[in-house]
Amino acid sequence: MGLNLEELRPITPIRVAAISTRPANLSTTAEFKELHSEDEECRTPKSEDQVLRPPLVCPPAPRKPRPAKRKAAGPAPHEFFQVPYDLASIFVVLSQPSKKMRSS
User: Fold this and answer.
1) Rounded Cα–Cα distance for residues 68 and 1 (Å)
2) Is the dihedral of CA 84, 85, 87, 90 positive or negative?
3) What is the rounded CA–CA span in Å between residue 79 and residue 72?
């Protein structure tokens, strides 16, 4: 169950063409070196307009957000409806259904 090296197939190499780094329009290597000599090294801008200056005054500390206002929960209103003396008169009598409903 272990991994044996004999079980793995060797990976076949992929053949690719070499990529030319020199552009075709530059005739000499001196022109190519001159063009790319500046791009080879990355430099940090050091002019005065690029340098970060420390702030004159520290900003204030962040404030804790105010809690959301909650609606005052007053006592629930007790509303009653007038009920007729004969409660059975409110309900409408339906005709008998043609099929009976099953109850299980």
Assistant:
1) 63
2) negative
3) 20
